Amino acid sequence: MKASLHRWFDRPIVQQLTQGVTPPKIAQAISWGVTLGIFPIIGSNTLLTLLVGVPLKLNQPVLQAFKTISYPLQWSLLLIFYRAGEWLFNAPHVSIHIPTMMKRFFDEPGPFFRDYGMTALYGIAVWCLIAPLLLLALSWITEPLIERLARLRRPSPVTSIS
């Protein structure tokens, strides 16, 4: 477990710190990576991180790593986003069964989008409401942690004895 944490969290951050990326920029990329990583449309996250990350000049290795790390969280929150959107817009519940949805998507895309398109938009609306708060919270949490990691990785100054 510790090796996995080091591989997926510490290593990408430390590599970027040693290349001169500042802790606030890394924290910003982490925040955006997680927030975009839970966007409620499966398969859209890589394009979304590029569309947001390039103009904002976010650190792409960190952004993509944390978008990828967020993938299980995206699946966990998918139904929550959709149901919250249906509640918010007072819309009827749509049956969500992933294997059936995938089959319908590939077999008959037109009816699929007709049946599930509004539910997806409701989920996106809920994501849009929480994304700014999530970005702020993640930035507030991660920046001090990255600063601390940067301090731990800096070589200690050598004191000379005269």
Describe this entry's structure for a reader.
- With 162 residues, the chain is mainly α.
- Helices cover 77% and strands 0% of the residues.
- Helix 6 packs across helix 7.
- The termini are far apart.
Spans where pLDDT lies below 50 across 5 or more residues? none
**What's the end-to-end separation, in Å?**
47 Å
Q: How big a fraction of the residues is strand?
A: under 5%
What is the 3D shape? elongated
Major sheet characteristics: none
Count of alpha/pi helices: 7
Number of beta strands: 0
Which radius of gyration do the C-alpha atoms yield? 20 Å
List the helices and strands in order: HHHHHHH
How would you describe the oligomerization state of the chains in this entry?
Answer: single chain
Let me know the average pLDDT: 88
Helical content class? over 70%
Structural class: mainly alpha
Set down the secondary structure blueprint:
Blueprint: H1 2-18, H2 23-37, H3 45-53, H4 60-69, H5 71-88, H6 98-107, H7 109-153
Helix pairs in contact: 1-4, 2-3, 2-4, 2-7, 3-4, 5-7, 6-7
Name its key features.
162 residues; mainly alpha
Can you give me a brief rundown of this structure?
By secondary structure, the chain is an all-alpha fold.
